[in-house]
Amino acid sequence: MEEFFQQLTNGLAVGGIYALIALGYTMVYGVLKLINFAHGDLFTIGSYLGLTLLTSLSLADRLGPAAGVLVLAVMVMGLVAVVGALLERVAYRPLRQSPRLSAVVSALGASIFFSNALMLIYGARFQVYPQGILPKVAVNIFGLDVPLVRILILAASVLMMLALYFFIQKTRIGTAIRAAAIDQDAARLMGIDVDRVILFVFLIGPALGGVAGLMVGLHYGQINFTMGWIYGLKAFTAAILGGIGNIPGAMVGGILLGVVEALGAAYLSMAWKDAIAFGVLIFILIVRPTGLLGERVAEKV
Amino acid sequence: MKRVFIALTALCLLAGAPALWAADSIKIGLMGPMTGPWASEGQEMKQVLDLLAKDLNDKGGLLGKTVEVVSEDDGGDPRTAALAAQRLATQGIVGVIGTYGSSVTEATQNIYDESKILQIANGSTAIRLTEKGLKYFFRTCPRDDEQGRVAVQTIQKLGFKKVAILHDNTTYAKGLADEAKGLLEGKGVEIVFYDALTPGEQDYTTILTKMKGANPDVVFFTGYYPEAGLLLRQKKEMNWPVPFIGGDATNNPDLVKIAGKDAAEGFYFLSAPLPKDLPTAEAKAFLGQFEKKYGHQPASIYAVLAGDGFRVLTEAIQATQSTDPDVLADYLHNKMKDFPGLTGTLSFNDKGDRVGEVYRVYKVDADGNFILQP
């Protein structure tokens, strides 16, 4: 039983990261009906930028671990948001009126561009975060030692998801995003600047992806320029699982995927871990083609 | 005039296009992972070959011609490699050096074989690569059955009774895991865990938790260094003190960087001797040249083994005064005996495998250095 709970916490930690990346997919899809394949690479950029800022500014030494990491997170979010906005301006806006397939191809191209640019800038070898930034403390929950970092990752993910949810539901710009998601032309007629809305989406989504990249770097230590692909794929799956275009759906989908993977690997077969996870996806899509929370099609994002 | 021109053209066609290309240089291909997860291996392979080719050309080249290294990136991926092999096969190369991963090499073997191009792999240790009877395939690295034997010897010598075996489903890692499992089963050692992880991920706590439940004395991981580094690091975070033994693909200094020194300490791995531990005079001279040109010693033995591939191929061309693949293959299989390579003496058997014992056992010390075990 102890092993079960241990595996559950393993799954929750990975699921939190999947969920955070899935939010970026889901937001962009909700507004543009575009799968932003470059999102996984924005995540990678976040972890590389985090490493550069961390080592060059030595934030953790100057501000202490907690404040240092917080400042670092804000900086990474800001920078990756800028990259995301540039991506939208260069790769997606010119194709706004083109068939949807052109934008998808453009997204794939951007993905290849980003990962190769990272390789050329940082080199092909694995990059490693300095150790000892985050305290290696384990918290005892019901007789189970859970590393504090894992709890923090999950908590940070959930907090950011809640903040995003309220931002979308309660603020003016959030309302505009929802309106643009339902019908761009109608939103335009109501006086909403749709281009500005889309720009906003491309600031928020990449910022969340970037901070997820930073978390991965801080926790796992090792980052490489191809890692965005596998995380992107999993997060994309999570977004579909929860109902793409739906923010609580991305949250539920990500955490569910992480837990299914961990428990499937623990109790069925390790080698078949991905097959189990994708099998669950297929099963859920057969039963509920819109995903778990995807029923309110009109209220995407 | 026109008639002369036509006659000349016809003559050229008769002589055959390859003869025309070969007029100025002898081309040797290099297929390695210049990008992708093993990029540090591939880039060093290229450095080694560039250095050796330049050295050879400074000494007058080969058969009166210069040697040119044509490199292609296999990305560490079988699909990319198949395309790279097709591109190389059309460029008039005599032979190709590479590549590192066994599943990557396997995807290209038939392409080279059909084009009658000699292939000398440098890091592909999977057994079945040389069991196919391919006439033009050789390798300078040893095979996994030898590695399996050394692994089992080491496990027995260290007195472990319950062993967990973990691989990553690649041709190489699974082959080595199966080999070790088969050898251990007959020797009173219990295999308490046998499974695979998915390479390229970052969170291996699930599999570590599961392995911990099986309570092994030692874990034998047959995969590659990025995953090994993460496993060591996450094992340390779990406070699980079980010793790890790795296969030769864990032999890379990046392992210690990824794991951190405190987590990597005490890790055993099997490997051909590291560049710094190579005993021969050829090796010492070469390492000196390499350091002079690139500012550091080669980190990976596989890059040096690629260099040995280049050296035996050029030696064969020199000795036979030919670039005919059948003549060269015959020379390498039957006539070349104890050629003084960088990594020791080189001879090949009928299958194209290197003859002789190569593997050593290494242990990581507290400073992250790889120490050769007696």
Automatic annotation (TrEMBL), chain A:
UniProt keyword Membrane present: yes
PANTHER family given in the database record: BRANCHED-CHAIN AMINO ACID TRANSPORT SYSTEM PERMEASE PROTEIN LIVH (PTHR11795), HIGH-AFFINITY BRANCHED-CHAIN AMINO ACID TRANSPORT SYSTEM PERMEASE PROTEIN LIVH (PTHR11795:SF371)
Source organism (scientific name): Desulfacinum hydrothermale DSM 13146
Name under which the protein is recorded: Amino acid/amide ABC transporter membrane protein 1, HAAT family
Alphabetical UniProt keywords: Amino-acid transport, Cell inner membrane, Cell membrane, Membrane, Transmembrane, Transmembrane helix, Transport
Gene Ontology cellular component list: plasma membrane
Main localisation: membrane
Annotated GO biological process: D-alanine transmembrane transport; L-alanine transport; L-isoleucine import across plasma membrane
Compartmental location: Cell membrane
Family per record: Belongs to the binding-protein-dependent transport system permease family. LivHM subfamily.
Topology term for the membrane: Multi-pass membrane protein
Species classification: Bacteria, Pseudomonadati, Thermodesulfobacteriota, Syntrophobacteria, Syntrophobacterales
One Gene Ontology term of the molecular function aspect: L-isoleucine transmembrane transporter activity
Record Pfam families: BPD_transp_2
Transmembrane domains' residue ranges: 12-35, 42-60, 66-87, 107-128, 148-168, 197-220, 275-294
TrEMBL record, chain B:
Keyword Signal on entry: yes
Swiss-Prot/TrEMBL keywords: Amino-acid transport, Signal, Transport
Key word Transport present: yes
Database matches in Pfam families: Peripla_BP_6
Taxonomy, superkingdom: Bacteria
InterPro entries in the cross-refs: Leu-bd, Leu_Ile_Val-bd, Peripla_BP_I
Domain Leucine-binding protein: 25-369
GO biological process: amino acid transport
Signal peptide: 1-22
Family label: Belongs to the leucine-binding protein family.
Protein name per Swiss-Prot or TrEMBL: Amino acid/amide ABC transporter substrate-binding protein, HAAT family
Organism of derivation: Desulfacinum hydrothermale DSM 13146
